[in-house]
Amino acid sequence: MTDRILVLNPRSGDGKRSARARAMAEDRGYDVRESGEKGDTLELAREAAREGSSIIAAAGGDGTLNEVVRGVDSEGRLDGTTLGVVPCGTGNDFADNVGVRGVEHAFDVLAEGRRRRLDLGSVRWTAAASADSLSEAPERPFLNSCVCGLTAEASARTTREAKRRLGVLAYVLSTLQRTRTFEGLRLDVRAGPRSDPVWTGEALMLLVGNGRRFPGERMRQANVEDGLLNVVVVRNRPALNYLTEGAADRLLRRGASHLTRLKVSHLEVDAGAPRQFSLDGELVERRHLRVDARPGAMRFAVGEAYDPSPADPNGDI
């Protein structure tokens, strides 16, 4: 029995990279534990954490990685475990952010890469909106983003076959198809230690990033060590043609009057009614959310291209 575990989702992406990851892991002496159905990945990560494994890596997409981190976190083992990612999914955003460029490179990083303390995002929800009830509710971590509104609801309608055939373009196409029917959402957003109101009104979407780069920010890699959440509120119905090339970049272009951008450690959201929130691609339907940054919560194996403090040529916000 090895204390290096690879939790593998064989259904990620087109399946070919998952098969390659399994072969490489076995050649390198990893104990490969393959999920069979929904929920298996989380339990396999919990088991590996309970066993005291020194390295637990996720082979799959962002959703697989999210479940592995959740499993290790639920056992209180983030401090004592090195986490890693072997990108086998459709988008692999977090792997790209930490400088992991492919399956073979991922194993090189696990063997020889730097270990960095990276932030996690954390979401809590409850039926009531009081600060006390939200702070006491169970938390759900996310690595890339928590998204509500147009993109979250469009992702719910993106088929597995479309994701496999078109990759990240599938989400873009689903979003464009939804723009004419999306009715918007009423948001009340509060931030900071005093939960001061920062935005109220009809929104097209709310984007909360930990590791994700949003279009218009012009950053190759997000800052995953600043202890802050990157928040973008997009006002409903800006005058844009969503069917033209580069529509997403224009929608989120820096300085646009329909955008509110914030960097905060804490956020409370009232969506007015239960709405779809996407946590690293997993959808939950809630009205009240509290979102926090957890600075340096996990120890992660990163590639040589990873920059601990990436500079944004347009400033911090």
UniProtKB/TrEMBL annotation:
SUPFAM superfamilies: NAD kinase/diacylglycerol kinase-like (SSF111331). It comes from Halogeometricum luteum. One of its GO terms (molecular function) is kinase activity. PANTHER family: SPHINGOSINE KINASE, SPHINGOSINE KINASE RELATED PROTEIN. SMART domains: DAGKc. Keywords: ATP-binding, Kinase, Nucleotide-binding, Transferase. Residues 1-126 form the DAGKc domain. This is Diacylglycerol kinase family lipid kinase.
